[in-house]
Every structure is written in C-alpha cells, then in structure tokens.
Amino acid sequence: MVSNPVHGLPFLPGTSFTDSTKxxxxxxxxxxxxxGYAVARRPTAGIGGDRLQVNQLSQADLDELASKAxxxxxxxxxxxxxxxxxxxxxxxxxxxxxxxxxxxxxxPMSTEEHYRIRQVNIYYYLEDDSMSVVxxxxxxxxxxxxxxxxxxxxxKNDRGDHYHWKDLNRGxxxxxxxxxxxxxxxDRFTQVFxxxxxxxxxxxxxxxxxxxxELRKQPxxxxxxxxxxxxxxxxxxFDKQVLRFYAIxxxxxxxxxxxxxxxxxxxxxxxxxxxxEVHEQNDGRDPFPLLMNRQRMPKVLVKDSKTFPxxxxxxxxxxxxxxxxxxxxxxxxxxxxxxxTFFIYDCxxxxxxxxxxxxxxxxxxxxxxxxxxxxxxKQELPPYNGFGLVEDSxxxxxxxxxxPPKKDIVKMLVNDNKVLRYLASLESPIPEDKDxxxxxxxxxxxxxxxxxxxxxxxxxxxGGKYLGRTKVVKPHSSVENPIYYSPGDFxxxxxxxxxxHRFIIRDIDDYALxxxxxxxAQYSPEALSSIQDHIRKREAPASELENxxxxxxxxxxxxxxxxxxxxxQVKDLPHxxxxxxxxxxxxxEASGYVDxxxxxxxxxxxxxxxxxxxxxxxxxxxxxxxxxxxxYNFIRAFSD
Length: 640
Hints:
Elements: E1 31-34, E2 37-40, H1 59-67, H2 88-91, E3 96-106, E4 115-125, E5 130-135, E6 146-152, E7 172-176, E8 179-186, H3 188-196, H4 211-216, H5 231-237, E9 242-250, E10 259-267, E11 272-277, E12 290-295, E13 298-301, E14 320-323, E15 334-337, E16 340-347, H6 349-358, H7 390-394, H8 409-414, E17 419-426, E18 437-443, E19 448-453, E20 464-470, E21 495-498, E22 501-508, H9 510-518, H10 525-552, H11 556-569, H12 576-586, E23 593-595, H13 596-605, H14 613-622, E24 623-624, E25 628-630, H15 631-635
Helix pairs in contact: 11-14, 12-13
C-alpha cells in the first residue's frame, strides 16, 4: 500500500489540491440487516473512504460530554403528551362539601319557650359553586322542614359577590337571606378537600340543642299518693254555702284602662272560685256575666309546672303545691288571680258571720272606694308669638281647627256705625312732621282705630290711609294681657302711642263731644276739664259768627225747616260722617267754610244730587258771601 504523499499538510490557502493517487470514490453503505429486518445505519466513512468531518467532535463537545451525566441507552427520554382539558362540571361532578350548622328562631307566641334551635345541613356543590340548605325532617315536629333554601348561588354581600368554598370553615357564622347560620362541623371528604387546598380548619364545635326538646326528654314525675281528705263530707257539710266578696280591678295606669267592679264567689263545698262582672245600665259593654268560670284556682305551682300544657289539660294536685282557700280572701287586701290584681273592699253578711265563726275575725271593714274627681287643670296659654292679635292667636290653643274669637254682638248692634273722630298731630323731632295732621277714627262697635292723613298739595308727603282698622295696644301693657285704647283715653292734649309713633289730640268732632257728655263716667277729670276748656274757646268765635249770620241772614228759621224737609223727602244720600271728612280735608283752618268750586267738586265726588230743587235751595241758604259756603249747615241735612 502506497502512503499518501500529501497526507499531513496543513489545510491552508494555496496548499489544498486533489490527491492524484486516489482511485476509490464509492460511498459508504448506509443499509444493513438485523435479525432479518432492514435497518438504517450511520456511515462511518465518507466518499473514497475519507473520514467524515461531521462525526469528529470539537473540544467544546468533548468538555460537555465529560461533564454530562450518563443518559439512557437509547437517548433522551420522550416528553409525555400534555394532559387533556377537563371542564369543572366533569372534574367536580358529584363532589359536594357538607357542613353541619344550626340557626336560632324566636318563638313569640308561646309561654313554654322563647326561642328554638333548628339544625340544618349546608351543601356546597363544587361543580358550579352553588349551595343549598336542608333541614332534616323530624316526625310530628309541626314545623315545615326539608329543603329550606334550594340549590343556587348565594349572595355574600351587597356588592354582588357570592359565597365560595374558601369562605366556609368550622366555627364561623354565615348570613343567608337574613338568617345567621353557625357552622360547627363538616364531613371527612370536606375536611380532606379543604386541607388539600391549603385552608386551615378551625376546631369543631358541639351542636347546640333545643331547650324545649331537651326539656321533653326529662323523665316523668313519680306518682304521688292522694290525700285522705273526705271531699264528700265537705260537699254535704257546705252545700249551697257561698262566700260573696265585692272587689274592683283598677287598671287606670295603663292606656285606655279603667276601674271596673266585680263580685267574687267562693263555694265552700268544693273550694271553687267564680268571678262575675257587674253591669250597669247603658254601660256600653257586651252582656257577658262571667269573667272567670267556676273552678279551683292554683296559688303556688310546682317548680317544673311551666311546661305543663295548661291550654289543653286541667291542672291537678300534682302540678299545684297550694290552692286558694277561704283564708286568702280578706277584705281590705289585694288578691292576684290570673294576672289581675283585685282589691276586695266589702263582703255580704253571711261572709262576715262565717269569718267570725271560722277564723275569729269580727271587724271586717267596709272600705270606701269612691274616688274624688281631681281638680280641673288650669289651662295656660303659651307665650304670645307676636303674630296677629292675642285673641286670634289664642284660638289655636283651644281647638284643632281655630275659630274666630267670639264678639260682643249686643255691643256691635248698639254701637253700629258710631264713630268718634279726633284731629291729631305727630310728635316728632323732624321739622317736616310738625305740620302734618291726622284724623283718628275710633269705632265703638269693635274698639278699633283707623288713622287717615289728609293729603296736602306740594308737601312732599303722600297722604291717605295711614293705619287700617285695628286694635292698638297701650305701650306699657303686657304681651299676655294686652290693654287696648278705649274712648276714655282720647281727649284734648292726650298722647296716643301707635306702634312707636306718638300723636297728640288737638281737636274732636261734635259727635265725640256729645258722646263724652252722655258717658262722662268713662273719662277722667283731666279729660273732662280739657274738653270744657276747648268748648269755651270754640264758643267765643262761634257766637260771634252766629250773631253775624243772624244779622246778615234773617232766614235761619227757613234753613232749619228746609233741613227737616230734606231729611224726610230725600233718600239714598251719603252718610254725614263721610261728607264731613271730605270737606274737612280742604278746610285747613277748621273755619267751617270752603270755596264754592271746592264745594261743588266735593259734592260731585260724593254723588250728591246738587240738581235737586231742595238741595239747590239748601246751598243758597248756606252760601256766605260770593265764594264761601258753610258746609257745617249743609251736612246737617244728611244726619238724623
């Protein structure tokens, strides 16, 4: 064999060339047979027998193989295929968590028990996170039992969250539809499942027991030998002998309670008691004669007698330690029967004789139970609030729907259309208010006051109604008992204070003078003296004026006759007071005369028929000079 002369040369650029001595260019065999089967095998040499570079390992591969652990003989292990997806309703099908719980239920209509313990089972279904509550059925329990809450997802809070198995544990309370359940225990499967999920379970608790059921489990009392008392002898000895007591039941302390009379009969033959009602004529009660039928009445019950079904069975000596007897009925002492406390105040003569012979009690009293009526409660009005009149505000305290205060009808009829008028000035430090004049009108029918300010041209003050009709309170009177101004307070020089404004009376009309003369007792001496001085001052110029009129106008008698004729014939004319106020507005000096033009303009505003022949003649007789008319004489024709 000839060795390759180029073998061992470095594989560098320029040094690579083909081997001219090489003659075999066949490929290595990649197929073979094993045990009669064709199998593929890896070639060990390349074309022409050259070594395969792919099979040569680098230094990094050698280092990796040196540090790599040995593997299986046949290479890397195959990875298992991914597990198939299994839905929850398949994975958790028929897997249910069971918890033992109870809840407490109030029993308001029973005297034997106040509450009831009801035991339930809570089931949690893992496949859809639903829950149900089932109460085991107890035979003859009288309570609807079974499925209390059907299978559904139960709300945990108001935010829409639902109960999950992570929220359930032993020793906790859960609230479902307003009922609080106490979980005390769970089964073995539930315990293993919760612990496998990393939940630490609380220690189990004992199931609460119903007190009434436990009371029913107590053993029955032993038989008691009856006494050897001869009831037949008692029946023969005291047949038709009855003790009669008169008692009352005072229930006035409670709402709608009252004091009612009763008669208590005690039958000596069998120690039974009967309570009869005392009915009076037209008392408005149903005619039931008996409050309690004749029966023996227990006084002291045995310790465990509260569980005895008294509503369906009669009480016997086994349930009672002591019965009511004749010695318990004493006149003057209270007695409680069936929850009602009766007070015995009297008895009949047979009962007094029996107590004297049997018990030696001879001085049974007769107690007077008549109650004295309490004194009437004085009605006090609340403080005045300042709105409206005191009389109007006080009506709200008398009735639910206030009514107007009562008026003095006789006074209103007698003093109808009677008005006292006064001329007043305003007491004010402001110079512009010194010349202002006001007309006070006092209405005798209602004791009200109105104030009118005559308008003055170019004064800068708007005249007209200053105060409407109202009662004016004196400044120094109290709010609870107000004192109003009366006619006796109005005289010349008097100061009237109206809601903080002070007025001084300067003059009064003729009707007010006549009223003061006829009712002098209502006025003080100071008021009468001021009026007398005012009359003296007025009579001096008035007499001079009358003398002049008598000299100028000799037809005074004609004027009086004409006034009488007008009063009899002419009807539907304005009232004298309204006409007088209209003319006084224009008569600033109170002289009794106004201009001719003003006179006719005022008559036109008052709808006075000046075209009437009698009225024309009256105006002619009242004329004073060329431009003046005496309206005092004119308005006399319009009053009685």
